[in-house]
Amino acid sequence: MSAQAGAPLDAAVAKRLQNELMTLMMANLSGISAFPSSDNMLNWAGTIEGAEGTVYEGLKYKLSLSFPADYPFTAPTIKFDTPCWHPNVDERGNICLDILKEKWSAIYNVQTILLSLQTLLGDPNVSSPLNGPAAQLWENQDEYKRVLLKHYKEHAQ
Amino acid sequence: MDTSSFDLCRTFSKDELQRIIQSASRQQQQQKQQKRQKHAKQKQPEDHPLLIVSQEQRIDGLAIKYRERLQALLQTSGYKNSQDGASTVVTAIESIDSLDQFTLLLTGISEIGAEFESQATAAAAAAADGCSGEQRQEMIVRSAWQALVYGVFDQEMLQRVGQWMFASATCIAFMLCKIRCGQLLPEDMANGVDADVVARLHRYHAISGGRPVIIALEQQPAGDISDNIIVAQNFQALCSDICRDTKTRPAFTNRFARGCQALTKMHGLRYTKKAILGAVNQLVHILVQRQAGQWETPRLQILQDIVSQTASTIDAFLLRADEQAPQVHQTVEHSARQELLQKVSEQRTMELFSIIIDFPSSTAAITDLRTCVSALNNMHQVAESLKTAVQTRLLHPAATTNDILMQYISAIRCLRLLDPTGTVLEIVAQPIRQYLRQRDDTVSCIVQDMVSEESELFEDLASGSLILDNDPEGVVYDEDYATRDWQPLPIEARNVFHTAQRRDADVLGLLVSVFDSKDVFVQEFETYLARSLLRHMEYDKAREIRQVEMMKLRFGDRALEKCEVMLKDLAESKRTDQLIAEAAGDQMWDLPLHAVVVSRQFWAAAPVEKFVMPREMAEMKEKYAGVYESIRPARKLEWRDSLGQVRLTVQLADRAVDVAATPAQAAVLMAFGADGMPSSRLTVAELAEQLECSEDFVLPRLRFWQSQGVLREVSPGAFEPIEHQELHSHGGEKETGDEDDSDSYSDPGDAHVDSNSSRTETLRMHFNYIVGMLTNIGPLPLDRIHSMLGMFIPGDTTTIDELRGFLALMVREDRLELSGGTYRLK
Question: How far apart are CA A154 and CA B249, in angstroms?
């Protein structure tokens, strides 16, 4: 089935992803999770929760992870499926994170990516924003939280 | 009768009619004169005034007189005696000279009939019986006919007359034909008759075998019916009457052909073609309908003969009738054969499910269907229809797994015969296989069937080739294959290989391939073997050895290594036991204990049930273990108390009962005899305390003894031995006499050498995966979870049933939630 849908999946890539899945499943970290979304090993669905002590605490975001055929030599494409109001996330869910772009390395894996994203939620890089208003408001945490929750309520639930 | 009807039909023109009436009245006059002479000699009965009629009166208004007198007579006498009435009517009819008179008379009769309906009906019937002479009958019919045509009667009368007068098959058929051809009556009247009388006519018509209808058709004047469709329909209906009532083929084909011939003459070939085709189709339809449920002998050939013969008879005369005939004939024969194949195919397809149940006695039906299908190329419809039947009739909770398996096995054999390429089987089997996968007991049913020596599967086990595991790609391919219909397969060699593997697989191979892995069968067999080895405490296991050898043939040596070890353990135990018995003999011990020493790793885990062994048994165990440890140093016996068998002789006050029980059952019973108090009464709670186990453990064992007639429940939860049978003969006999009953109380510990617990542990490790997929993908149904686990966990061999059990456990532990067939996280 998988072989017929889309590009043929390299056995090495499949094995790598299978191992990453196992690592992730066995690690069983709270607040991050991901799983292949279909029979195709290259497309995963992920979930991250905002870390404790940040404005994103208790908020849950769905992600889609799409792995290239030459993974891990090229970074996976990761987007927020749940609309996310965040300085480094644009309104279509694209993420600005260096390790997913120029600083990608094959030593990263799904687990580290998800952890990085979880960290990014609570610790945005306001100097290179995709969402200007959010970046400007970041300083004012109370107001930020109010707007964030309003946004989350409107879009995410 | 035939001659008369033939005459009747042929002489239907007005001139001829008159001629016949004239000759008939001449004859009647002669008869009347004879009769009058007879009357003169005999004594004239007083109450028959009708007979005293003068010659003059007869000329004018005779019938009116008759009618009046008849009325008077009937009304005054109340017409009590139908025999009198009958003879009156007969006399009246005898005296008739002309049509008009008869018409009037009939009117009279029907008027009377309105008042004295039942008597008049009887009289008319009697009259019809009385009129046995051909001439007279013909006369009656013709008169009645004319009466109808001239509209003498209103509709109600008409029906009544129809009921009275048309008891003769010839008349009926004739009338039917007329009515059907729309010639007889104004529209409304025809409808009125049709509704009530025609049904009756049909029945009477049967008596005459349809022949007069055809004759009548032959006599039909040409060209006066504009609506050919009505003619065609009528002809079809007539044909179906003929078909229904004709037993012999030649007679039928002749008649049929003559009908066609008549129709042709009537309307010319142009109009006839449609009618003949319609009629032939009708004929085919009825012929095929009659074959319903007759599967033991081939029918198709016979039907084809009939149809061909009919067609060729039609051909013979059509050729003479018109030069277009060959073309028509070709169409008729071709269409008839096609229709036949189509109908037979439909019929058998409809019945296919039942045919499969009856297989192999229904082989002939399958062969017929195969012929049809190869001619019509409609295999796919057959498969789809059967698939639907299977889904509605077989794959539901009411069907036992064994039934489903039997039907599947039968379907495999049947459909292989029907379609050697295996396509139908693939299509039909797919839902069955899918369904079987969901049943918990499928594997154990198959395994039990497989190893029982009288089953068909056992032969397969002995004869077939090694079963390979399905490779996952092949399984995917299977489903594609089902929708891909008939096309030759333009697919990679691997897939073709798999098809070939599936196609050539025997029944057992197919059953095993229901599950993705043959391992489940091996595991089930291991469980089965462990159970059967431990159930009866004998070391001689020829049957089991044979089963293992058979299994090896199909599943490979390596798969059955565990079983080999089990058998070896048995053999080893036998030797050890002999040594121990010798040692015990040396010590003058009575040691009626024989142990099976098993290697723990190779046997399916036995459930550990803790209870206190009775003192006697515990002592025996100790002695046995002591000797064992002296023989096999550095080894220690670890007893599984719940397994094994104890042969007991229960000594009661008035009798002794020999029972083979499980150790647990024995322990429960022996608690009653403990401490030298043979007849003590114990409650469930006391027993549980004494045996240091739960009440749930005790109760089923108590029930077992209850069913054996050894114990009885004196009050809820309290039991005591039945020392004197006659005092409790009622309950005791009933329960001991019922073998099945005691089976249902069989020991739960007995049947379960369980391999489930270790699987559950494996599955707990998979739970993270399940949480992962439910978190990220959302609620999922069982089969998706199963397929995902299989896909993303390397080397996972969880079966869907194990998974279902595990998920149910998770639901019980409140970690998952099952709603609408999908699992979600709590």
Answer: 83
Question: By the CB < 8 Å criterion, does A3 face chain B?
Answer: yes
Question: Where is pLDDT greater, at B256 or B38?
Answer: B256
Contact call for A39 and B776, based on CB within 8 A: no
CB atoms within 10 A of CB B396: 10
Partnered with residue B650 across adjacent β-strands are B657
Q: Is B280 exposed, middle or buried (0-12, 13-18, 19+ CB in 10 A)?
A: buried
This model's pTM is above 0.95: no
B80 burial type by CB count under 10 A (0-12 exposed, 13-18 middle, 19+ buried): exposed
Contact at CB, B775 and A22, closer than 8 angstroms = no
- Strands of the B682-683 sheet, one edge to the other: B682-683, B718-721, B711-715
Q: Which of B588, B675, B595, B681 is nearest to B632 (CA)?
A: B595
Task: Extract long-range pairs of B540-543: CB within 8 Å, 24+ residues apart.
Answer: B541/B567, B541/B570
The string of DSSP letters for B455-503 reads SHHHHHHHHS-PPPPPPHHHHHHHHHHHHTTT------HHHHHHHHHHH
List residues in chain B touching A: CB distance below 8 A. Answer: 473, 476, 768-769, 771-773, 775-777, 787-788, 791-794
**pLDDT tens digits for B347-380?**
888 888 888 888 878 888 888 888 888 888 888 8
In A61-90, the residues whose Cβ lies within 8 Å of chain B are 62
Catalytic residue among A13, A42, A59, A96: A96
Distance from CA of B809 to the nearest CA of A (A): 20
Question: What are the structure tokens assigned to B259, written together?
Answer: 């009908």
Give residues with Cβ within 8 angstroms of B715, minimum separation 6.
none
Structure tokens at B248: 């012999």
B772–chain A nearest CA distance, Å: 6
Q: Are the C-beta atoms of residues B395 and B446 closer than 8 Å to each other?
A: no
> pLDDT tens, A46-70?
999 988 888 898 889 999 999 998 8
Nearest residue, CB atoms, A45 vs list B771, B776, B791: B776
Produce one character per residue of B710-737: b if its CB has 16 or more CB atoms within 10 Å, e if not: bbbeeeebebebbeebeeeeeebeebbe
Residues from chain B contacting residue A22 (CB–CB below 8 Å)? 793
- Looking at chain B, which residue has its C-alpha nearest residue A21? B792
> Is A84 annotated as catalytic?
no
Least confident stretch, B325-329, B342-346, B395-399: B325-329
Counted across chains A and B, CB pairs separated by less than 8 A come out at 43
Q: What is the ipTM of this complex?
A: 0.86
Q: What is the pLDDT of residue B761?
A: 67
For residue B469, count other CB atoms closer than 10 A to its CB. Answer: 15
Q: Which residues contact B40 (CB under 8 A, 6 or more apart)?
A: none
Residues of B in Cβ contact (< 8 Å) with A21: 769, 772, 792
Q: Are B287 and B279 within 8 A, CB to CB?
A: no
Chain B residues whose beta carbon lies within 8 Å of the beta carbon of residue A3: 473
The whole-angstrom distance between A18's CA and the closest CA on chain B is: 6
Please write the tens of the pLDDT for every residue from B600-634: 777 766 667 778 787 778 888 888 888 888 877 77
Residue A82 neighbours by CB under 8 Å, 6+ apart: A60, A61, A62, A63, A155, A156
Q: How far apart are CA B286 and CA B237, in angstroms?
A: 11
B290 close to B245: Cβ distance less than 8 angstroms: no
Question: Which among B776, B787, B793 has the least Cβ separation from residue A33?
Answer: B776
Please give, rounded to a whole number of angstroms, the shortest distance from the CA of B474 to a CA of chain A.
10
Contact call for B775 and A33, based on CB within 8 A: yes
How many CB atoms within 10 Å of residue A92? 9
Say if CB B709 and CB B722 are below 8 A apart: yes
